[in-house]
Amino acid sequence: MIMKKVLSICCLVLVISLTTSCLDSKEAGADVKLVTAEEMQSILEMEEVQLVDVRTPKEYNQEHIVSSQNIDFMSPTFEEDIKNLDKAKPVILYCKGGNRSAKCAKKLKDAGFEKVYDLEGGISKWKHSDKLKIEVRS
Fold it and tell me: Is 95 part of the annotated catalytic residue set?
């Protein structure tokens, strides 16, 4: 009798933990897709996309992906600046290594943007590949 109760409780705990962990994993990703440089190029060719460099203007001026716009994630006007983006159009974000763009992606999803992509590893990972067109100032 006690074994049946213990077994029932264990099964109940297992079901609850599996259910809540599945819900948490869906919310954590919030539909932000990490993309490679190849995937990013495909998306840019197929859709009208807003390509956003979230680094500082100084970093952006040194090198950036061609046709990107600069919205500094660390700027005090960041919240206002993202209002100029179209929430219905896909957004691809990138920074130097991926940390700032990941934080920015979460903010954009929270603000109601429908499709948000994040360049895996940032510009540092891809700048020496032939997959991205990067403009460099000397």
Answer: yes
